[in-house]
């Protein structure tokens, strides 16, 4: 019976250890053709005991593994040649093209590695996003569902075009509220209680490109504030962050990060506190990647909350939206307490007038 050869996928002198499965038992289960402990997907011990490996798998699996590993080794040889060219070239554009080619080859070299494939499927939240192959797998998964879900909610709820005219998402934006007892990521469009939104959320920005020194602007707005005098609605700015650093290995923007970067909070957070009988308010968070990693110049002065024009602000600062999220809030019995917590006036009560 053929055995797995010790090749490039077991050599970590030039490869990141994050490409391997850390658990020896789990690694053995993934790399053994006869699965001595049964498939990882089977949770019950009895089911694993009853499992029988497909006929011929013991012979085919090592042959396939070794063949793919040899192809990976050839790809790494190409990567070494490109890295030498990158070190020699002086033209920035040519260097950028070579680095992109190197990124693609790094994906090609690892995309068939069983350990990498397993971690990309079952350990999504803990993969090393500095590795191009993991970013590629995450991007494919995002495009397969979460990207479409977010756009569907933004468009059907009218967030597009009521706040920004359109969006071509480049990043995945996840939102978690600290008062959410389960600390789960909020699905776009979810209706949240005033208790959950009473504290500022944390944002996770998942970049699918190489990201190290990027700065971001985040604007959270409520476009459903009643404007009685003009018989329409106006937008209120609930939170504004600028010049916030994030990267592939540090994608979280939360209160802890803002403590060390207090200058990043352009406008402090207030939660959505809808007035009674005004229905569900659409709270949208828009994420902008600042051009060339430069700090905003036109945003030194904090904008007014009431009547905030997000389109004008983004145009004045040359900002292009790369991602967004939306949740909804409505008046509830705790809204009055949240208003008091933030020193806000008592809300109005709207009623339908009889003609």
Automatic annotation (TrEMBL):
Q: Record's InterPro entries?
A: PEBP (IPR008914), PEBP-like_sf (IPR036610), PEBP_euk (IPR035810)
- Role of this protein: Component of the mitochondrial ribosome (mitoribosome), a dedicated translation machinery responsible for the synthesis of mitochondrial genome-encoded proteins, including at least some of the essential transmembrane subunits of the mitochondrial respiratory chain. The mitoribosomes are attached to the mitochondrial inner membrane and translation products are cotranslationally integrated into the membrane.
Task: Return the protein name.
Answer: Large ribosomal subunit protein mL38
Residues folding into a coiled coil are: 65-111
Q: SUPFAM superfamilies, alphabetically?
A: PEBP-like
The protein's gene is named: MRPL35
Any one GO CC term of this protein is: mitochondrion
The UniProt entry's sequence similarity note says: Belongs to the phosphatidylethanolamine-binding protein family. Mitochondrion-specific ribosomal protein mL38 subfamily.
Q: What is the lineage of its organism?
A: Eukaryota, Fungi, Dikarya, Ascomycota, Saccharomycotina
| Transmembrane feature ranges | none
Q: Where in the cell is it found?
A: Mitochondrion
Q: Tell me which UniProt keywords the record has, alphabetically.
A: Coiled coil, Mitochondrion
- Tell me the leader sequence span: none
Which Pfam families does the annotation name?
A: PBP
